[in-house]
């Protein structure tokens, strides 16, 4: 399968959905569980599936992606022919009328034309799972599908703007936001390369801005479609609240181990920071603490990123602290998310709620 499938991670539609956390980065670059980024799960699942050439449509906030993805070996992408391409929208053709994610498909069409395989596995980063798409790809090829959508059937349909599949037999008849529909669309699909390139041409010629919505969703009846339901544990992100709740849910020890260290290990950029330093008066319970952290205070049911400093007498509960933050002595944080490089000065108290956590953007001091 290695030579048959090109991987593509499309971050263009995911620029701002996590509010303060996406002020300075795309959704795929958002840190998760202390040491990962959301894009790591798409890369890991593709790598699990034998895909070793991956393009990333980075949108207009790609600096952190360039740093995070600069060593393909960290993600198990090995070999001379293996690649991870970060592809910003860099074509300044004055005749180009494309918009939205179509601009990326159009500007980087040589990625598809040069790839010798016949199919493309496309994902975003708002859905994460440690899974393997090999069976989905095999069914797609066996049944000669134009497009195969990867989905999940759940017992209790979640609330929120997650697209759901409308199916007729083994075909996909449409998409819906009906909250009662339990057939969730993951945002992952496999498409024939020739179909993909024809869609780009159609959208350009007809001034359509969206590859997926205008080129696939609105023309669904023209394609031979199918779906594949995965069974792996999944998480969906569409707001700060879902980001917070998914993070807190994974603090349960067995759930964390199964998700990150199950059949396949979720891979991320390797860090060389020293181990965590727990000082004499520190007290840490039910938390994830990354390396490079210094703890003098109390941490309970929280996620602490790399190189964070927690001062004496500080209390952190039900919170997510990104890398390089400084929490000075006697600070109290509860139901809070701090982005990178935030400083909370001595004695300050910040409290949100589980329904609406208090969020501070990158490089804030308060």
TrEMBL record:
EC id: 2.7.7.27
Pfam families xref list: Hexapep_GlmU, NTP_transferase
Gene coding for it: glgD
PANTHER family: GLUCOSE-1-PHOSPHATE ADENYLYLTRANSFERASE-RELATED, GLYCOGEN BIOSYNTHESIS PROTEIN GLGD
Domain Glucose-1-phosphate adenylyltransferase/Bifunctional protein GlmU-like C-terminal hexapeptide stretches: 280-349
Coiled coil as UniProt keyword: no
CDD domains noted in UniProt: LbH_G1P_AT_C (cd04651)
All copies of domain Nucleotidyl transferase, residue ranges: 21-208
Key words of the record: Glycogen biosynthesis, Nucleotidyltransferase, Transferase
Domain of life per record: Bacteria
Example GO molecular function: glucose-1-phosphate adenylyltransferase activity
UniProt entry tagged with the keyword Nucleotidyltransferase: yes
Enzyme class: transferase
Protein name: Glucose-1-phosphate adenylyltransferase subunit GlgD
Family to which the UniProt record says this protein belongs: Belongs to the bacterial/plant glucose-1-phosphate adenylyltransferase family.
NCBIfam families attached to this UniProt entry: glgD
Source organism of the structure: Salinicoccus siamensis
SUPFAM superfamilies in UniProt: Nucleotide-diphospho-sugar transferases, Trimeric LpxA-like enzymes
